[in-house]
């Protein structure tokens, strides 16, 4: 069934990084979260806020695609992982969606941007009217590969935010931090699923490279447009701007991922020996989730999660 790297052995998973996946029911109260939830730093707040624009539609789309791929899975353990993944992503999508009314209340209406993102995932990356057979399967495999590439970055960001102590030092809003870290920890937990699914149903190396290029370009494009959108429409800023220089500087300060780390993550995904279990730490993710205010049904307290 699969043309896994043209006869090369599949990249080795680190077995101890594997964990059973379950969706945790979470609830966040946004009433006390300010618009600039990293105090005095609208650029960082809004650059991270772009997640709330992209993830509701994006993760709904993951779920939609994965439900279609379930019949192609011939491995029980992988099927269980995919079902766990679907449950987690559905919850993530909902949790980020719930932030949007709060942003609207604070004077920043995200609808002009989210309408475009919805169109991208529902129409451009949607099912399309394809005849059953080869064309339909090709498009399904293409999307499975795109999701694997995106998940390389969600795991990267999850690992980053779990370790971004500078956000705590700057007094970032505890509820927002808990949303990001609960989500980031589950991204780390399930970081191998999308790649293993892709390797199981297709695994073609050219497809991996091609879809990585598509996903990376789209993410960079959507992210810079999203942060510009927020900065330009923020009612509290007279001349809100988002520049590459801001991004590089915040990366150096540790409140956003460092540009060098983002660049270095590229060859890792494209390496033929890549396996997501080689990145980040499941133990750290599970430890965070055991104490996350939202995941354990408590409320985030001011002054740290
Ligand atoms: Fe997610
Ligand atoms: Fe994910």
Automatic annotation (TrEMBL):
Species assigned in the record: Streptomyces albidochromogenes
Keywords attached to this entry: Hydrolase
GO MF terms, alphabetically ordered: hydrolase activity
Signal peptide location: none
PANTHER family from the UniProt entry: METAL-DEPENDENT HYDROLASE
Entry keyword Hydrolase: yes
Enzyme class at the top of the EC tree: hydrolase
Entry EC no(s): 3.-.-.-
Official protein name in the record: Metal-dependent hydrolase
Any Pfam family hit: Metal_hydrol
């Amino acid at each position: 069934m699969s043309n896994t790297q043209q006869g090369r052995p599949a990249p080795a998973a680190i077995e101890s990084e594997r964990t059973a996946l379950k969706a945790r029911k979470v609830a966040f109260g946004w009433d006390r979260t300010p618009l600039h939830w990293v105090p005095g730093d609208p650029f960082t707040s809004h650059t991270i806020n772009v997640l709330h624009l992209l993830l509701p539609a994006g993760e709904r789309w993951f779920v939609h695609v994965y439900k279609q791929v379930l019949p192609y899975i011939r491995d029980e353990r992988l099927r269980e992982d995919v079902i766990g993944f679907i449950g987690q992503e559905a919850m993530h999508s909902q949790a980020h969606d719930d932030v949007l009314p709060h942003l609207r209340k604070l004077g920043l209406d995200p609808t002009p941007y989210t309408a475009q993102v919805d169109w991208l995932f529902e129409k451009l990356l949607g099912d399309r009217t394809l005849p059953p057979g080869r064309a339909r399967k090709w498009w399904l495999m293409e999307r499975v590969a795109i999701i694997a590439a995106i998940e390389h970055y969600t795991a990267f960001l999850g690992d980053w935010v779990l370790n971004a102590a500078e956000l705590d030092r700057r007094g970032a809003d505890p509820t927002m931090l808990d949303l990001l870290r609960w989500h980031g920890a589950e991204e780390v937990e399930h970081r191998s699923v999308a790649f293993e699914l892709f390797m199981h149903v297709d695994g073609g190396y050219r497809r991996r490279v091609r879809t990585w290029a598509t996903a990376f370009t789209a993410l960079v494009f959507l992210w810079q447009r999203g942060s510009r959108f927020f900065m330009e429409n923020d009612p509290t800023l007279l001349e809100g701007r988002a520049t590459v220089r801001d991004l590089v500087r915040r990366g150096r300060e540790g409140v956003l991922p460092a540009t060098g780390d983002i660049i270095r993550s590229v060859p890792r995904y494209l390496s033929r020996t890549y396996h997501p279990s080689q990145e980040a730490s499941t133990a750290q993710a599970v430890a965070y989730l055991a104490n996350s205010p939202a995941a354990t049904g408590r409320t985030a307290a001011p002054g740290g999660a």
